[in-house]
Amino acid sequence: MTQRIKVTVRFDGTGFAGWQVQPNERTVQGELEHALATIAGQPVRVHGASRTDAGVHALGQVFHCDWSGPKGLPELRRSLSQMLSPDIRVDAIEEAAPDFHARYDATDKRYAYVCCMDSEPDPFSARYAWRLPSPVDPERVAELAQQLTGTHDFAGFCSSGSAVATTERTIYAIALHRAPIVGPPESATHWRLEFHGDGFLYKMVRNIVGTVVQIARGITPDDRIGELLASKGPFEGHTAPGHGLFLVNVAYRGGPPSSASGAAHAAQQQQQ
Amino acid sequence: MTQRIKVTVRFDGTGFAGWQVQPNERTVQGELEHALATIAGQPVRVHGASRTDAGVHALGQVFHCDWSGPKGLPELRRSLSQMLSPDIRVDAIEEAAPDFHARYDATDKRYAYVCCMDSEPDPFSARYAWRLPSPVDPERVAELAQQLTGTHDFAGFCSSGSAVATTERTIYAIALHRAPIVGPPESATHWRLEFHGDGFLYKMVRNIVGTVVQIARGITPDDRIGELLASKGPFEGHTAPGHGLFLVNVAYRGGPPSSASGAAHAAQQQQQ
Q1: How distant, in Å, are the alpha carbons of A3, A106, A202 from that of A193?
Q2: H or E stretch including A237?
Q3: Contact at 8 Å (CB) between B157 and B235?
Q4: How many cross-chain Cβ pairs, A to B, lie less than 8 Å apart?
Q5: Residues of B in contact with A263 (CB under 8 A)
Q6: Active-site pick, A53, A105, A108, A122
Q7: What pLDDT, in 10s, does the model give residues A37-51?
Q8: Is A53 a catalytic residue?
Q9: CA distance A181 to A110
């Protein structure tokens, strides 16, 4: 019997050339497909909600696949845990509707982008934050980013190399938190922007962060945001590096509301 | 001119066979001495406040050495940053009194021991917490540990292999915090004990944590703590693994009070 399954995974992106399978590269999708195929004894194709780039981390990536292997879901989860390397962890496996699609059915996503203003790399958090070349005022960065909430054609913030039906997206909220996602507690030098939206274009979060940080540093003029929104793209400017980005959560209709389930929420609670 | 200098460093202990120089092993002291000797053009001997074991991390280890190299202290710091690998970072270099000794002059130290109750290793925090084989009640563990605050002969919690003048030590406080030191924000499964004392014997914190966790799990009887205190040692029992332990802070007379300078304090503030 074949069943469609929905799997939630987290991964440390440091050791991967991104999500998507590429020849001769270690990728998250590749590792998952290899482990699943080994257990099933036949090829398994994995469809991720988000195609994260090299270095990008995930606390709650979701994928679907069709499973006709010999094992039940709890047993499959245990086998995967044993086979996967320590930088990937399966957090949940559930049966899904036969037509469930991890990417097309996602109703909203949360990303966090972490910056730090340490003068030297921190052994515990350097892999999980963009160390800015010079300090900026995080409040000012967040204020600049706020201009992008709402529904816009984000083509001007989309890097070339993607093919999507429409470049209109809605950002529900962009929130500033003064703490790292992964790192020691002295967080005075760390801050992050959390993005909640119905979807994000190729490199859109990193292009937004790169742009607002460049404006806050006085390198790019303030009206660059409006210019980029008015442009048809592709994005031209400073893309923030992949290792500061976390895919926090992907939500689906009928699932728990992402505001109550994501790591972002847990982080907020912890800070209170 | 030779001057004695006091250096504060942090390191991720994952890739080290501990602090102390050992033949054919990568150690923190070894890396520091190699970098300093390369800059100075002559051997430099480093004296650490604490001889941390393999896997143990530090947010605030202190060492002293005598510096007669060609560079001033700000320049020395920059050169060290360039030479040291990303798992060690120099946080401060200051001139010290000619008779300052990082180990003998320390007035108090703070350690944190992090446990987690995840059913599977977390990619972001597994290197920084002891994943317990079965869940325990952290409140109960903390309550058990409280019996050890105050001044005691801790010989029964000291592993063999150390030579110290006296095995009497004072633990000022042991506090429970429900968060990891390094890890993602969903911390429900993470907790740590923070130890503040005038000094700690060889593996004493790990032996205390190992014992109270075994009691809380029902594997060791409650009166084991009293038995160990009454024994003359060396410790016999379960030593918690090194990778859950952080040396948080070493304080000195005349320096800033450790309660206001350590990472432990920053962590407390962050949680409020």
Answers
A1: 38, 21, 18
A2: none
A3: yes
A4: 86
A5: 184-186
A6: A53
A7: 999 999 999 999 999
A8: yes
A9: 13
Token pair 């097309």 is found at A104
* Tally of CA atoms within 13 A in the half-sphere of A199 that contains its CB: 22
Look up the pTM and report it.
Answer: 0.89
| Rg of the Cα atoms in chain B | 19
Helix (H, G, I), strand (E, B) or coil at A32: helix
Q: In the Cβ-directed half-sphere of B188, how many Cα atoms lie within 13 Å?
A: 6
What ipTM score was computed for the predicted complex, to two decimals?
Answer: 0.87
Q: How far apart are CA A128 and CA B270, in angstroms?
A: 19
Task: Please enumerate residues of A whose Cβ is less than 8 A from a Cβ of B.
Answer: 10-12, 57, 59, 81, 86-90, 120-126, 128, 179, 181-188, 263, 266-267, 270-271
Pairing assessment for the beta strands B106-116 and B130-131 based on DSSP bridges: parallel
Interface list for chain B against chain A, based on CB atoms closer than 8 Å: 10-12, 57, 59, 81, 86-90, 120-126, 128, 179, 181-188, 263, 266-267, 270-271
Q: How confident is the model at residue A231 (pLDDT cuts 50, 70, 90)?
A: very high
**Distance between CA atoms of A125 and A123, rounded to whole angstroms?**
6
Residues of chain B with C-beta less than 8 angstroms from the C-beta of A56: none
d(Cα B237, Cα B73) in Å, to the nearest integer? 45
